[in-house]
Structures are given as structure tokens and as C-alpha cells.
């Protein structure tokens, strides 16, 4: 009989890392109906514009409106963390004109929104390879982070020039440098240590992943962090993703049984106390 979550999560095999997969399940994660952390691939802006015979950038502008809506909705619901994929490490491959306009839009949105975000107690951060943003954009990002650092409301992470492979690579590089400097032994590297060197290390893992725009792929978003995230795909294009669409995603999440490798029966026993 299953007595407690500890009896299940305790490592049973010596070969298993102390903090390995078995050791990290929290009972609360099994029965949570509202996600603590929502991560979104905001896709479909270009197609939204195309359907209206408008230039792609008009779709990106409409997408910014949808960002406002989701930030408001998450703050209102008390969701702790919202991570938004705004620009991937692969999006540089787009026509230079679109890339340039996207960077302008990022800068102007940042300048326009940051005061309001601060007033609403939002703590903002940017994740991704920042070396690409050495100029004004990089400065504004750092300023926005410094301004909102101590805010206690929604934690909003915007992924720009982000790639899941880059994230894991930079973690590996930082660990290797520590080993080379004699600060760490290679044998001490375990899943917890790798996780601690990734973006979002200090935040709960995403509970719910949403991708709008109909594609069913991860497109190099949070590869490590999504290991046990519930995936939700919708055909709704990002600029059309409103409160009602978000409610549908949350309802889908609430209806699922998360098992983290356990059996359904084990989960039910744990949930019944
Ligand atoms: C997502 O919308 C925004 C970015 C990738 C910057 P897209 O621009 O990819 O829109 P579609 O997929 O072409 O419709
Ligand atoms: C993923 O969308 C990246 C962002 C939404 C920022 P893409 O439109 O770039 O993804 P692919 O190329 O269709 O996989
Ligand atoms: Mg796309």
C-alpha cells in the first residue's frame, strides 16, 4: 500500500542520484488544478496578418495586444510564472526586414509597457543569449529587470534569442569551467546541478505549455524544463488568443492526471490522503 509521497519518491536504488527523478515529485504537483507556471509559444502572427491581407508585422503588433491580455489574466488568477517565447535563436533566419521590425517592436513595446508592468508588481526578466543585444535593446532589458527586480507579483520571463539547446549548452559550459577551475568535481554533476545552471533555475518548472497557431512541435523552446509539463496545442492564432481561449487551456490542464512515472492508482491513493 502507498502510505505517503515520500515512500514513493525515496530513491530505492543506489545507482539513482539522490535528487534524481524519483526524489523530486511533490505531492502538491499531483493535485494542482491551477498551473503555477505557464509557458507559451506565441505562434501564428504571420498567418493572422496574411488572412487579413496585411503585412506580417501587423500580425506581430496584434500579438503584442494578446501579450497584454495574457499577462493581465495570469496576474488576476494568481499564476506565479509566465514564460513567453518571443523570438527564437532560429528566428534570425527570417528575412532581415522582418527581423529588424521585430527588434523595433520589442524595443518600443518594452519602453511603452515597463512602467505599467512595474505598477502592477510584475517582476520581469529576459532569458536567452543576451550577447546579441549589446546596444540600446540590451540596456533597456537590463533597466527593466533592475526596476522590477523586487516586485512580488507575477514573474514574467520573456524568451528572446532563446533556444533550449543553447540553454543546456551554456549550463554545460559553466559547469565545465567550474570543473576546470577546481571548484567542482566532475563526479558531483547530477541533474540538480545541471538544472541549477539553466535559465529559470530559481522558478518552479512549467506545469502547462501552450502553443498557439496549430503546429505541434516544441521548436527548441524549454527542452529540459518541459520534461514533465502538460502540453496543450490549439489552432487559435496568437493574436486571437483571448481570455476564453486561455480558460479552455486551463480547463484542459485541470482535467488531466499528472503521474510523473507513478501509476494512476498510486496517484489516486496519494490524492485521497
Ligand atoms: C510567431 O508568429 C512570432 C515569432 C516567431 C516572432 P510567426 O511569425 O511565426 O507566425 P506564423 O507562424 O508565420 O503564422
Ligand atoms: C517559434 O515559432 C518561436 C516563437 C514563437 C518565438 P516559429 O514560428 O519560429 O516556429 P517554427 O519555425 O514554425 O517551428
Ligand atoms: Mg510561426
What would a concise description of this structure say?
With 273 residues, the protein is of the alpha/beta class. Helix content is 44%, strand content 12%. Bound molecules: 3-methylbut-3-enyl trihydrogen diphosphate (IPE) (2 copies) and magnesium ion.
Describe the structure.
The protein has 273 residues and is α/β, with parallel strands linked by helices. The chain has a single domain, classed as Decaprenyl diphosphate synthase-like (Undecaprenyl pyrophosphate synthetase). The chain has helices spanning 5-9, 27-31, 45-51, 56-77, 96-119, 136-148, 164-180, 191-196, 243-254, 264-271, and strands at 37-41, 81-88, 123-127, 155-162, 208-211, 230-233. A six-stranded parallel beta sheet has the order 3-4-2-1-5-6, sandwiched between helices. Helix 3 (45-51) packs across helix 4, helix 4 (56-77) packs parallel to helix 5 (96-119) and helix 5 (96-119) packs parallel to helix 6 (136-148). The model is unreliable at 1-22 (pLDDT under 50). One 3-methylbut-3-enyl trihydrogen diphosphate (IPE) is lined by residues 42-47, 87, 91, 102, 213.
